[in-house]
């Protein structure tokens, strides 16, 4: 999520593991961020399972020089920090406003729409 765009959403239809998180990052999110080179600051909350040794290796390579907020990044951020993140501040409220509208979506496809 940035000031002018949202990358995603990506719907995980399986258990989210470190390997799966890295796959989504490299094959889904990174291509969307290519045209924003030099302007992206990636925030990783460091909570398992998305944070893994593989992720810890790949993220600093893709977001050098103050482009990574989180465990192992150039800007420290505690795992599962109680401080508000952009997702906590904006996205979850937006999602709740759309999910809790009546009638409730009855299928995954309707929820995605």
UniProtKB/TrEMBL annotation:
This is Uncharacterized protein. Gene3D superfamilies: Ribonuclease H-like superfamily/Ribonuclease H. It comes from the Eukaryota. It comes from Zootermopsis nevadensis (Dampwood termite). InterPro entries: RNaseH_sf. GO terms for molecular function: nucleic acid binding.
């Amino acid at each position: 999520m940035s000031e002018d765009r949202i990358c995603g959403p990506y719907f995980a239809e399986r258990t989210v593991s470190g390997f799966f998180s890295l796959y989504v990052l490299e094959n889904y999110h990174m291509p969307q961020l290519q045209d924003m080179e030099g302007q992206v600051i990636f925030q990783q909350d460091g909570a398992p399972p998305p944070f893994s040794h593989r992720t810890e290796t790949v993220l600093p390579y893709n977001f050098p020089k103050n482009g990574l907020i989180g465990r192992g990044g150039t800007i420290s951020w505690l795992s599962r920090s109680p401080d508000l993140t952009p997702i906590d501040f904006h996205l979850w409220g937006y999602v709740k406003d759309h999910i809790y509208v009546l009638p409730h979506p009855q299928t995954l496809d309707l929820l995605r729409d």
